[in-house]
Amino acid sequence: MSSALRIAARAAATLATVTLATASLVGCATTGGTTAGGGNLTMALTSDPKSFDPPKGTAASDYTVARLLNDSLVRREGNTVLPGIAQSWELTADRAVFTLRKDITCSNGKPLTPAMTAASLNRLADPSISANTTAFFGAAGATVTADDASGTVTVQLSRPWSDLLYSLALPQAGITCSTDPGALQSGQAPGTGAYTLTSSQRGASYTFSRREDYHWGAQYADMPQGETPKTLTANIIQSEATIANQINTGAVDYASLTGPDADRFRGGDYTTKTAPAINFMIMFNQRPGRPGADPMFRRAVAQAIDVTAFDNAAARGQGQPLVTIAGGTAPCVNTDAGLLVPPNPQEANKVLSGTTVKVIGTNAVAGGAGNAYVQAALEQAGATAELTNADNATWASDVMGGTGDWDLTVFPHLNMTNTLGNAGGLFAGAPTPQGRNAGAVDNAEFTAAMGQAMATVDTDANCSAWAQAQRALLEQVDVIPLTAAQVSYIFSQRAAAAAPGRFVDVSTLVLTK
User: Fold this and answer.
1) pLDDT > 90: percent of the chain
2) pTM for this one?
3) Which site in 111, 294, 338, 438 is 20 to 30 Å from 407, CA atoms measured?
4) CA distances from residue 383 to 61, 358, 369, 407, 498 in whole angstroms, order as listed
């Protein structure tokens, strides 16, 4: 057995021990101080969900509703993997076998079977259906099979992918009880989560009702005290100022804010949890005929950008500078700022003067102030910068859906696995919409080194390969790292939730009074 596989086997044994020990804590929704029978809790989303079908999710609102409607095989708290629908698992570098809990039911009352679970995961592994296949299983994909007799589901990877277990904790991997695409898209398919969608008004609001038979779900260390809401209303409010006003008046109980309105809730009657959750970077459309296909253009854009000025615009000067495609807490992340292109407006002007650049960004973060800064910096360097400051759903469709007319995007990456593999998938493999490679980047050295990194669970080999991969990406200026912006999760006096990492788990929201 190779050293990598010996390490994988030891890791699998450790994880299995942890999960079996923890499984006994997951049997009841009242664990952690919650009780059933609360009233209504209202939350705010800054954009409409693009889809209620978990594998199709590409933006924050999609992930929020996916977590409410469907549970995942496992959950994650920091670097610890917890049981979810699976009570235990065995793991190697290219294979995972999950033993499912026997008491999970779908929202239509039918028992969840391994066959149904495998069908759900095979949709996630199908690139013709899923926007997330490569993030979960790598470019080579996977096959998922079920054994109803033993109560197990097996994920067999075509090639090793070291992020598999962390990825399967994400909302996009939520297990559905139907493969009907229409029902899944509308949120009407039976699911495995704590809630069902009971009313829907596109672009305005959604009401989710708590399942009376729901008694499972991960138990984090910081589970809140209170009553689970009988109904949860999600209102679509694009303006953070309006959201803040509604929190103040009691019309909204929970929201995440990225702009200056978050400062209104420091102390007092509100609880605020803050984390550097949004990794901003500039990505280029490198398809033929686009200016981003020219390395000199990409370098000139980097020379035109002052990261400190961007951080002041997008994150009120409170962000954490990025030196690569992931935040500083991700394993194996580059820390050598010398690999970045330094600002040089005069040199940028020599290349950018007289060019037209189509910039697209989402206004979901600080109203798009960072996008406006990039536009201004390009124009100061002599370019004509045409900015589309889009709502988050439109931005996701144009950039991740592969339908937009853009040259560069200010990309707000939610690296929910906190790994380089999750971020790296944005620069390798099939272009969108077939894959996650939004800019159609073709960097052979990066792709090869990333493949080596994802094929091993040996820490030294993994980090060595990632060092080569990150250097290749930065030297070709396929990306311009910017800043990790803070997200503030605001709770009124009557609301609380668990935040097991940098993100709040909305399925744990409770009413505290």
Assistant:
1) 76
2) 0.80
3) 338
4) 34, 10, 19, 13, 46
